[in-house]
Amino acid sequence: MDTLIQQFADTIRAAAENRRPLRICGGGSKSFYGNPATGEDFGVTGYRGIVDYEPTELVITARAGTPLAEIESTMREQGQMLGFEPPHFDGGATLGGCIAAGLSGPRRAAAGAARDFVLGLRLLDGRGTDLRFGGQVMKNVAGYDMSRLVTGSLGTLGLILEVSLKALPLPPAELTLACEMPRGEAIEMMNALAGQPLPVTATCHVEKRLYLRLAGAETAVKAAAKKIGGETMPNAAEFWRNVRDHRDLFFSGDGPVWRLSLTSTAPEIDLPGHQLVEWGGALRWLKTDAGAESVRKAAHKAGGHATLFRRGRHDTGAFHPLPEALMQLHRRVKQAMDPAGIFNRGRLYPEW
Amino acid sequence: MPETGVLFEREDVTPYECDGLSAYRQPPMVVALPENEAQVCEILETCHAMRVPVVARGAGTGLSGGALPLGNGVLLSLARLNNILAVDPLARTARVQPGVRNLAISEAAAPHGLYYAPDPSSQIACSIGGNVAENSGGVHCLKYGLTVHNILKLRVATIEGEIIELGGGGLDAAGYDLLALMTGSEGLLGVVTEITVKLLPRPESAQVVLAAFDDVGAAGQAVANVIAAGIIPAGMEMMDQPATLAVEPFVNAGYPTDAAGILLCESDGTREEVADETARIEKIMQDSGAHLVRVSRDEAERLKLWAGRKAAFPAVGRLSPDYYCMDGTIPRRRLAEVLRGIAAMEKKYALRCANVFHAGDGNLHPLILYDANDADQLQRAELFGAEILRLCIDVGGTITGEHGVGVEKIDSMCLQFGAAELETFHALKHAFDEHGLLNPGKAVPTLHRCAEFGRMHVHSGHEKFPELPRF
Description:
The structure holds two protein chains of two kinds. Chain A is of the alpha+beta class. Chain A has eleven helices and 17 strands. By secondary structure, chain B is of the alpha+beta class. The longest helix of chain B has 20 residues, at 375-394. Chain B is globular and about 65 Å long.
């Protein structure tokens, strides 16, 4: 494995010297996400395997090429899970891609995002230097929080080699309630429930129906279900997996799909098309033919930002434009980590 | 700036000469007390233009000297920016200025059944701006996270005096996660002028289990057994015998002083959740060899059991003229080994040490007892502390779990990180602060300093706020 890291470092150094960009390729399950990167394909999935897993320490460390499915099944055997419920999409997702994309699934509003579970990581920067940040302990405030900075940076700051993540126990019992409800009312209810001490771990509203997932001790789940009301849904695990991986019918078709991250209490987005609401109202998926400008304006007005998650026919940038001062800061951060600008050029913002 | 907002006479600036780590003192050249964000920006813009260094300060309760002023610099106090700007009960957020006290946020949220989760022990005094700078934790972090997990948005003044917004109204933002990077950056990257925090519903009920063990190794194993059973306790604290012996006569919390170590394990949530979890914890403690297990029967008993833990620092302070509080985090499975190592160091340095431990997340606070008036004891305490941090690194842990690096642990940073990582930190700092004007000399050592390390390793830990509970 050390030879492989040596090879990666050599490739990076040569690329930096020749200013020839590299397109980091993991499992390819999220290749649709972000802007198209330029450069030579740089396959990195060979660096794989779980390095260390100590269930009673609540920490798992694995190499970036390890399939997410392998990590999750290993954890499941020990009664644990990744708390942020990461999407797998077409199934080939790797740990490195999961952290580089920084995407989280239905449990996000209740348990936290990918970056909240990252305890440490090892990466090669744009000079091919092998760096380690954070560690395998729950609390660590020594040095800048590089691990969380790298999470979600879409491979633009370095090649992730290894990641240590906090594990959570699988809940003893889970139950999903469903009922008919108009969208606006559902958003209000999601917010009202989140303000009460109830074990809600996921919410979704789609096609005029509200879905609430409860998890915890069996007695607690039952008591909460009785308090909230609604019918118990069969095959709920499959439903949530489909929402997580965008296999739900809502996501079918090849038109554009927007991801709007907003203040959870923001009223319904007044744009034509279809909407799916998650994360207690803080995440709205939008299938619309409306122009990019109007979608971004609506997201901004609702306290958030819009991502063109699946491109469709659009030729606009995937991510919400940044104010000038912030964009300059982004460039300088990129410059600090990858001075030759070789990693995933254009993937995050087309100019770099 | 109003005239009362700028201090420069010696007697006026002296109160700002140190923070909670009062062994280090340095009066600043000037103290600036802005009243609003625009004034903060103007001060920074001026300092940037004149190349004058700036140290930001909240309530000054930090334990690592992060707010230690510079004799040629401006001490920028955010104490007058102390307004809670908005509480949104439905969205469960509060928008506050940096000088607002941590506990004041929970007090403002209480009428809505909400609270702000991170609860550093100094929460009655420490400010939320300081919490962001240090990424403060508390007793409940294993379940509820640190500051970084509980904030949504920051307004930050750059050294150029420009305002940038990091994070947003939603749960994420476009671009790099600079919100996470800024949190815990110890005032080296920017000055926070406004914070939007997440509020959580107050748990319906809580109960604590006390368990006593004849052996600290067995207590450590009990912690692992609780986690292995799939329980994430709201709080899980350990105290060794020297700590319980110090506390019991002081607080009468009802701790068995004959035990080698005790555990306090708290469950919170809905009534059903707590009843279920407490019963399981009780059984696990018995099965793990506890010779005494007690469950709090009511709120009064729960608070009494916690009172002992919360009084551990002042209680230990009664045993000795001074104590030096360390803050390493270790993988929990190495606890028994680390405690044995510390016991050996007690003999080596001829100083006593009491250990309190956030056992759930592996954050150890050894309290080294010494007399600062005895130069030899002071030096032994410093060497003792440095050796503990070294041991924490050796077993795969870190030199600071929650108190920050500041000036106190800057030399230990040379042990924890290699030159390449330190260079990366400096490159990032440069991206935010080209001329190195924000809190220079803190948190990240220069490579030169690391090369010199050994000759200049001097520190102490006299506490400036003895009245604040510290846990």
